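Page 47, continued from p. 46.
Same chain as before, 162 aa.
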Amino acid sequence: MGSAIYFALPSHENFFLASILVLSVGLVDSFDGIVAVRTSKTSSWGAFLDGIVDRLVDVGIAILLIVLGAPTEIAVLAMSVALIHEYMRAKASGIGFREVGVITPAEKPTRIAIGVMFLLASGLFPESATQLATIAANVWLALGVVSFAILMRSFRKRLKKN
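Result:
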């Protein structure tokens, strides 16, 4: 993600390369999980590291949007909602909830897709990068708020049964 941020900086403005790097991070992260499960090489340490990398990706996407010109407050709020979203899942798992539960509109692949799509759009329309980043941050925030409500409802219903 650091390289993607570097290429998105105003001094470089290589939004296409930045989008490819973000997409690559997302694909590698998904692929390593698939390989671990398929080869039965999962471990607690691997799961722990995967969660940390996932959160770093969220922070990286927020930084990318800020670099592109999104209002810092909106990007940080969107990122915070995403971090809370993932914390809710981790906490539910920690207290015994073993199912994935409900899939929401703001899952990690969606967050990565937002970063990739708006970086690509910024590459096509560099003069609109600030507006595009602002739209991306607002979309991310809106999806996050909706997803938060979905998760709260789902976990409340399921955890109250226990």
